[in-house]
Amino acid sequence: MSDDYLWDGSGEPDPEVERLERLLATLRSDRPAPELPENLGLRKRSVLFRHSIQLAVAAAAVVLVIAGWFLLRRERPSWEVVSLEGTPRIGSESISASGRLAVGQWLETDSSSRARISIGIIGEVHVDPNTRIRLLKAGADDHRLALARGKMHAAIWAPPRLFSVETPSAVAVDLGCTYTLEVDEAGISLLHVTSGWVAFETEGRESFVPAGALCKTRPGIGAGTPYREDASEAFRLALTRLDFEERSADGRLVALDAVLAQAEKEDAFTLWHLLSRVRAGERSRVFDRLQVLVPAPPGVTREGVARLDRQMLDRWWDR
């Protein structure tokens, strides 16, 4: 609602204010103002003046009540923060036991402090030392934090996509899970899912990270390809080169060869992501290797996958 509506009726009214107006409308007087003679006596004029003042005071009181109610409604939502160790800070205030983190405020821990944030009634976040985190939204259908640096552990028991965390290079969207998310000084993020699923999103590019898997991001590039936590070091390094480092055709082929050669059946979800991320000329090689690990279901063809047919990709994902 526009604040001006309370004073001069301009702007869009709040639905609750409209409801109050409808309830009070029955008390409104329709009678025209009386015509007063010019020679009205001084005493009568004084009485009318007093009545006018009383009416003005009463009207002002109604306006103040409505305005106060409106301002209370506009109070910023906040979440409870409990100090687990040391003295975390909310803005410039240190908290020794507990405090409230309002929308727009930063929570910071130093090297000797930790904290717990209650995410309304849908979960909680444990904040490690040397972490800076901000509350962005606390609405009924959108709970959002921003992790600028440091490490946090989230446990969420809510329907998918109610809770998310922004990082400098991607957004972690909860799909019902527990996970750890960390951001280093360069803005590089690492997501580790321990139960359920998390979607790591960057401008339309999405990585689905299942329990037991990790996913990296890089500023300017976004989310990389997810991989299982017990993948070999050689597999991880080759995938990192393919996602973030190799730009020449020869370098990419070498990195892709290493990923495909070392991929096992448990890495099928990684290769599925690669289908839409490698260049068109490299896609058939990923198709062939994935076909060996997890054969495509009936109706999913090489030609359809080559053109990234969404329905075919989804059916293979389900398999």
Give keywords.
16-stranded mixed beta sheet; about 35% helix; 16 strands; about 325 residues
Give a verbal description of the structure.
This protein is 33% helix and 31% strand. By secondary structure, it is α+β, with helices and mostly antiparallel strands. The chain folds into three domains: 5-73, no CATH class; 77-224, Sandwich (Jelly Rolls), CATH 2.60.120; 231-319, no CATH class. β2 and β3 form a beta hairpin.
Indicate the topology.
Elements: H1 5-8, H2 15-24, H3 42-73, E1 78-85, E2 89-90, E3 93-94, E4 98-102, E5 106-108, E6 114-119, E7 123-127, E8 132-138, E9 143-156, E10 163-166, E11 171-183, E12 189-202, E13 205-210, E14 213-218, E15 222-223, E16 227-228, H4 233-245, H5 249-262, H6 268-275, H7 283-293, H8 302-306, H9 310-318
Parallel strand pairs: 9-10
Antiparallel strand pairs: 1-4, 1-6, 2-3, 2-5, 5-8, 6-7, 7-9, 8-9, 9-11, 10-11, 11-12, 12-13, 12-14, 14-15, 14-16
Helix pairs in contact: 4-5, 6-7
